[in-house]
Amino acid sequence: MRLFFALSFLLSVIAAVYAGDDSKSSSTPSIPPKAAEKPVIDMYHGTKVLDNYRWLEDGKNPKTEKWVEQEMAYTRGILDGLVGRDAIHKRLTELLSVGSVTPPTIAGRYYFYTKREGMQNQPVLYVRNGLNGADRVLVDANKLAADGTIALDWFQPSDNGKYVAYGTSPSGSEMSTLHIIETKTGAILHDTIERTRAASVAWKLDNSGFYYTRYPKKGDVPDGQEMYNRHVYYHEIANDPEDHPEDSDPLIFGQGRDAEDWPNVSLSNDGLWLLINVAQGWTKSELFLMDVKAGTPPTRVTNGKNFLYSAEVYNNKLFITTNEDAPRYRVFVADAGNYDREAWKELIPQSDAVLQGTAVFGGKLFAQYEQNASSQLKLFDLDGKKLNDLLLPAIGTIFGSGGRWDRNELFYGFQSFTFAPSIYRYELKDGSTSLWTKVDAPSIDPAAYEVNQEWFHSKDGTRVPMFVVHKKGLQKNGHNPTLLTGYGGFNLSLTPTFSRTAYLWMEHGGVYAVANLRGGAEFGEDWHRAGMLEKKQNVFDDMIAAAQHLISEKYTDKNHLAIQGGSNGGLLMGAMITQRPDLFRAVICQVPLLDMIHYQDFQIAKLWIPEYGTSENAEQFKWLYAYSPYHHVKPGAEYPAILFMTADTDTRVDPMHAKKMAALMQSEAKNGLSRTRPILLRIESKAGHGAGKPVTKQIEEFTDVYSFLFWQLGVKE
What we know:
By secondary structure, this protein is α+β, with helices and mostly antiparallel strands.
């Protein structure tokens, strides 16, 4: 059978006019490399599971490296010669030169925020002295690596802004090193702390030190556990770092707890209470309080139930936002130090909208909501009385906020599909709103596009919404090139965002669709739980129904429909490939999870067991094996054209998933050797899961994506 496929491929090469450049064929591989089949059979609860490509999981094996090198040569041999590629690259360079900005964090008289402009690879941390003061560069990660591959991961100023702790990491690894800079002088202190990935930092009010989270070093825990065991420590600022090395920082919290716990820290406005929020997956968290002055061990505030909690301590009151017996969340208040659950008082009850979070700004309670996948902002007093609805510019998304308990101002970021990221300032005294800054996008005309929210029914009858964006005046002719994306997991919402690259697609008559699948947060915890664990198939059914809706509404047909997704969305793409290969012409599958039997053994994936389950459990194995994309490739079946994309330093989803799936499909699929409907693997070097990726790499990556899509769907440049 494989010989037949090979002969068919050779005939197709002779007949096809590939990208208008026949000279490429003599210098590049004409077929993908053949990955050796080395069968490994595992037994899971009485079921034999075959894996022919287990050896590709070892990324440092010379044989794996050689195979990857050959795969890259084959992929580049196809992508580099595609017609219109240069024009796509040029336009993407213009679009990705549209910058970014974040709402400011206020500390003392200072305003700290990040901004990226033009062809800067990484955002720059700025500081402004006073509301109308001049901006000054504080940390510029672009100067740390010529190729832009060192990123500023996070930052946290001290209470009065004297110091800023910040983290940097190389090659998208997110494995941060903590540094401290003095705001006034720009001097970098000697203190550095390794292994501070996504660190949570809470400064003491006198700038003498801070509570923070870090990971163990190799040798302190069993092999493979270095990415877990996130604990809370205290670090004292020292003139001589030899006086206070990081290993001498006292452990505050975490010893003896589950290795997968994820604690974060914050201090009360008076500095008397340390609040520790411990996430345990995406359905449960716990709160602990520590009396800083007494120095007693942290005490549990919550009751261990399977709900989510977040909180803030203000003036000895604990303001708690939770989905406890309220899937769309509500707010309680309690006295700090009173650990009796019965003493909690409901402050803001559950409403029709989903409460995303609260914060005390200017002595008021600032609340962010989401309704039908669009943001809302409301202001309450500390007794729970609603004071105001903040008017937003359009249907869209709040992407951050900043303020202080003792300031009569707050900031928030807003964006939408046709609204570039903008930062607004709200004055608490008079309720006025003003534009603080915005991202300029001179090469984009948002007024030329329209946004609609459409609803469709999934397989089980559930109503699911989807945003559809396209040029005004688009004709529903049944064959418009259409790009559909989704995620459906981890309690995350896909709300309207300003996608720079989507404009390239829409400028050429494309339809851009975003489906709000179950598993997300769009309609509260019930919506999330309806798409996780044993109900994960609901997510896939929703995506299939979204595609069918686009076809039935005459936006497109199966020959002009492509799908794209990454990470958990990459798993979604894998399920679409194996469950409905007839429904799509092309698939962009980015940093994906695909081997769901073996996934928990790599990188930080044990953190995701509460969302997916684990094959180590007999019942959970059944539902994982039922949809695991890697285990449902059918020999001889024809699949869409596929571009698998991953990165060599991804510390979240191991690149082994994409490697094994590409090898299997190139071997088994009817079109595995096709150059007209290919299955390709792209591995980015010096890049991770996506965070911190320099703009230059983004341009090259999206050039490959859109060249591939334009080619497969017949879009003319």
